[in-house]
Specification:
It contains 8 helices and 4 strands. The chain is of the alpha+beta class. A two-stranded antiparallel ribbon has the order 1-2. The protein has a two-stranded antiparallel sheet with strand order 3-4. It is elongated and about 65 Å long.
């Protein structure tokens, strides 16, 4: 017979495996009907157990998620037949960096920092769900304001936007307006 703690641990492991999305500790605690500190303790145990394995449990986008261990990305890449053009271009990565560090930000502000038209890059970021429209700026024309998404946080392994590495002062660009 399985102990109650082992049953809870197995249940949480299953939730993380099937979710495909980060789950908050609160959500997990509600589902398995226990307290958040108990969930935290079990997550820590699972993280320790998965440390040297092909899967891992990461804290991303305000929750926890079971993911493949980045150490084995080369094997996953061989398995997936995604074409190289599915990667973000340098321009799209630049636009994403401007959005991430200056959000909410308009297309004009992105283009000011990059010095070039960024419509295609912004569109690609929207398609990949790395950026989204978060509102409109209260200026004439009411342009869209862009910000990052939970998918961005997941993709870059961040629990929230405050964990972005700082930009050195010689690389900072003052925004217009």
């Amino acid at each position: 017979m399985i102990s109650e703690v082992k049953e809870l641990k197995n249940s949480i492991e299953c939730l993380l495996f099937v979710s495909g999305e980060p789950l908050s500790l609160k959500k997990i605690a509600q589902i398995v009907d226990t307290d958040i500190p108990v969930v935290e303790s079990i997550i820590k145990q699972l993280q320790d157990e998965y440390q040297e394995r092909g899967l891992t449990i990461l804290e991303v986008a305000g929750g926890v998620q079971m993911c493949t261990n980045p150490q084995y990305a080369c094997w996953i890449k061989k398995l997936s037949n995604s074409p190289n053009n599915d990667k973000l271009s340098v321009g799209a990565l630049e636009a994403l960096a401007v959005i991430a560090y200056n959000q909410p930000v308009t297309k004009a502000e992105i283009e000011f920092v990059r010095g070039v038209n960024s419509v295609a890059q912004i569109q690609k970021l929207l398609e990949k769900r790395l950026a989204k429209v978060v509102g409109r700026k209260d200026v004439p024309g009411h342009p869209f304001l862009y910000g990052t998404t939970k998918e961005f946080l997941k993709c870059f392994g961040l629990s929230d936007i405050s964990y972005l590495p700082p930009i050195s002062s010689d690389k900072k660009v003052e925004m217009v307006g």
